[in-house]
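User: Just a sanity check before I run the rest of the batch. Below are the structure tokens for the first item. I only need the designed sequence back.
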């Protein structure tokens, strides 16, 4: 095979932090071993050559330190399939790797099942039984024994740092105690990520059974992978591409293609990059891989050992389908419904419990199977998912403005490295803000006693309010260091305290915070949530408390500036408290508004800006008062550790219930078929009041079924009107 050497910038992917190669002196090699017509090789030979060339045995020997029998080796093959081996890593290949390990004395081997399927809606034989269906028998054909463990059981604290999105989450004890971990992924496409290889397979090793709920909706999957790699990264990665699964959704619906390849590398991002190139797809097109490459980068001086000619006959998901699926909000029911309905379930392995979901699954899997060869089916699939994505976006935009209590809050990581900033970076914040604050204080007040002015493409804004709260009591109840979380439309965030004073109060901290799109109506034009990371400096003095912040990063590019300060000051002899807010902000406009260029239409722009800031900061200061008074003010719904809200609210379940109700009503109506009364000798029907069987019983039952929904609608409308009146 041809050996290709690459330096750090060869493919335009910068290295951010040290990866596996820095742990030892061995060069990081990604080996690609392929079977061709001129040089056919069996799968076992492909695997043996790939792991040898990528340096598996040298790395194991170094870790074992002369005692291979005492080294606990964990294998995590992708098993995200319900009896369909096409979408799972080959058990034959995995057991051959076990034989190779045993030949070298590594006999303490555990297979940890990594599965990402929608278990909540499928009745099946269970994870371990599914593994046995896929060919794992706890003993290889050569008689070498191994254990199978469920990585969602025997969970212990994992000690993820406070800056991690996985902080407080545990992991399986066998994963934590393993001395050497080998991640084995199936070579497949994915309708949302584009492709799903080693990094995507790591979602399966996390403990919660409902992977979508905890690692796609509640948390961002890309952040989860980055933080997992930072704390408990696998030591070696293998991609089983002997028989791949390609097409619109190869990870969900098995569509086999013989590609005769095995890829091996000590670094997961490097292995995935090679796998993506063989698919003829941009390695950073997957949001999971893009985030890992951005945050961690590739190893220094890596080598690619093998042939990178793209697979013959390979089909990637249509770009329109991938974009449509990504537009489905992960925390929404439609995204979840698509993920569940798209899984191919073997009839003899499991059964979908929801009849409407089963029908939808059959429709989607049929379209997915034929879409690659049938342009009409492909267009129909993209149209259906695109329409669902548009509806999902509209619902989320509506909730942003009018139903904020239904929006889910987000669990996020800090998204930046706390060690990258020194104390001097925090101490400079007040000096940087001082000239801007002087400009704000010199501006004239408007009709709402607020000051604002455009500065370049940003907005300077200031407001203040004196509240009827004794200063000492106010600062005791309202923590100045949490001022960001008191602001209106706050969706969630994470705080990392860098230093504290003698009383234990934060004086320097890093904070990431998310807000709804601002102004809220921008969400109707595709405006993203505001997502910013800030350095914050807090001062506590006898006559004031102050927090000042400077934005250093926006993970989603939603803000260029979001700097400012909040000051608490005593007023009226400390019997009242004065709150002063000053900010400089510049948020990224949606594409539609960028084309519109509001800066060229100041007579239209200025009233909109003035109204938006007046609304946002009036409600923000209202929140400070609510915090002092102990009243609730947070928007959105929190996540629960065992939250099954999404499971109970699948649209197909409601459709099934509605169908059952209609059938029940129809059956009762048909049952009342005999004419009431009796036929008299005069040839007329004589009907007494008691002879008439009431059809209103059916109507009454239907009305009683609908009563909760109707009464709930009007109750919600009344509460919304009351909230609007209070906010005015």
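Assistant: Here's the designed sequence for the first item:
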């Amino acid at each position: 095979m041809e050996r290709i050497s690459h330096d750090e910038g060869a493919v335009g992917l910068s290295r951010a932090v040290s990866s596996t190669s820095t742990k030892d002196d061995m060069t990081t090699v990604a080996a690609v071993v392929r079977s061709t017509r001129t040089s056919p090789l069996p799968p076992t030979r492909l695997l043996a050559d790939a792991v040898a060339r990528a340096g598996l045995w040298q790395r194991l020997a170094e870790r074992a330190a002369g005692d291979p029998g005492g080294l606990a080796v964990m294998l995590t093959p992708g098993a995200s399939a319900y009896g369909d081996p096409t979408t799972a890593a080959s058990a034959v290949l995995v057991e051959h790797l076990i034989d190779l390990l045993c030949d070298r004395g590594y006999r303490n081997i555990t297979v940890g099942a990594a599965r990402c399927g929608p278990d909540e809606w499928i009745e099946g034989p269970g994870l371990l039984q599914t593994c046995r269906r896929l060919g794992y028998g706890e003993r290889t054909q050569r008689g070498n024994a191994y254990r199978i463990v469920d990585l969602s059981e025997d969970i212990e604290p994992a000690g993820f740092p406070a800056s991690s999105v996985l902080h407080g989450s545990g992991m399986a004890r066998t994963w934590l105690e393993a001395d050497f971990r080998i991640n084995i992924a199936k070579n497949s496409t994915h309708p949302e990520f584009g492709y799903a290889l080693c990094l995507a397979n790591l979602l399966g090793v996390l403990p919660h059974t409902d992977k979508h709920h905890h690692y796609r909706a509640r948390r961002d999957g890309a952040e989860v992978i980055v933080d997992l790699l930072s704390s408990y990264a696998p030591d070696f990665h293998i991609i089983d591409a002997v028989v791949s699964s390609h097409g619109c959704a190869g990870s969900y619906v098995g569509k086999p293609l013989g590609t005769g390849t095995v890829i091996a590398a000590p670094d997961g991002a490097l292995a995935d990059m090679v796998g993506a190139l063989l698919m003829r797809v941009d390695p950073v097109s997957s949001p999971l891989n893009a985030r890992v490459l951005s945050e961690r980068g590739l190893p220094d001086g890596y080598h690619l050992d093998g042939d990178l000619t793209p697979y013959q006959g390979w089909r990637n998901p249509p770009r329109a389908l991938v974009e449509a699926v990504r537009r489905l909000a992960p925390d929404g029911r439609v995204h979840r419904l698509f993920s569940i309905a798209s899984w191919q379930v073997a009839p003899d392995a499991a059964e979908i419990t929801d009849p409407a979901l089963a029908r939808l699954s059959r429709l989607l899997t049929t379209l997915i199977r034929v879409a690659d060869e049938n342009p009409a089916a492909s267009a129909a699939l993209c149209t259906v998912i695109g329409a669902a994505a548009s509806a999902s976006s509209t619902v989320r935009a509506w909730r942003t403005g009018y139903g904020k209590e239904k929006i889910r809050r987000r669990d996020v990581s800090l998204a930046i490295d706390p060690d990258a900033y020194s104390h001097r970076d925090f101490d400079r914040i007040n000096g940087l803000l001082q000239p801007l604050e002087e400009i704000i204080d010199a501006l004239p007040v408007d009709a709402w006693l607020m000051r604002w002015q455009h500065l370049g493409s940003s907005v300077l804004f200031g407001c203040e309010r004196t509240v009827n709260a004794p200063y000492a009591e106010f600062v005791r109840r309202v923590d100045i260091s949490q001022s960001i979380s008191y602001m209106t439309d706050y969706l969630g965030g994470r705080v990392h305290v860098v230093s504290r004073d003698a009383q234990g109060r934060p004086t320097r901290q890093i904070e990431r915070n998310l807000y709804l799109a601002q102004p809220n109506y921008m969400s109707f034009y595709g405006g993203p949530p505001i997502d910013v990371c800030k350095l914050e400096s807090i001062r506590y003095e006898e006559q004031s408390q102050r927090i000042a912040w400077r934005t250093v990063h926006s993970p989603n590019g939603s803000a260029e500036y979001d700097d400012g300060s909040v000051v608490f000051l005593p007023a009226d002899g400390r019997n009242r408290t004065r709150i002063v807010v000053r900010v400089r902000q510049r948020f990224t406009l949606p594409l539609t508004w960028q084309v519109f260029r509001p800066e060229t239409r100041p007579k239209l722009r200025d009233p909109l800006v003035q109204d938006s800031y007046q609304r946002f900061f009036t409600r923000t200061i209202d929140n400070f008062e609510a915090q002092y008074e102990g009243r609730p003010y947070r928007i959105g719904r929190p996540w629960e550790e065992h939250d099954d809200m999404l499971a109970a609210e699948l649209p197909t379940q409601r459709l099934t219930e509605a169908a059952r109700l209609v059938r029940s009503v129809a059956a009762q109506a048909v049952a009342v078929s005999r004419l009431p009364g009796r036929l008299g000798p005069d040839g007329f029907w004589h009907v007494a009041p008691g002879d008439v069987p009431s059809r209103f019983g059916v109507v009454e039952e239907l009305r009683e079924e609908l009563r909760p929904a109707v009464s709930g609608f009007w109750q919600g409308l009344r509460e919304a009107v009351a909230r609007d009146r209070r906010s005015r």
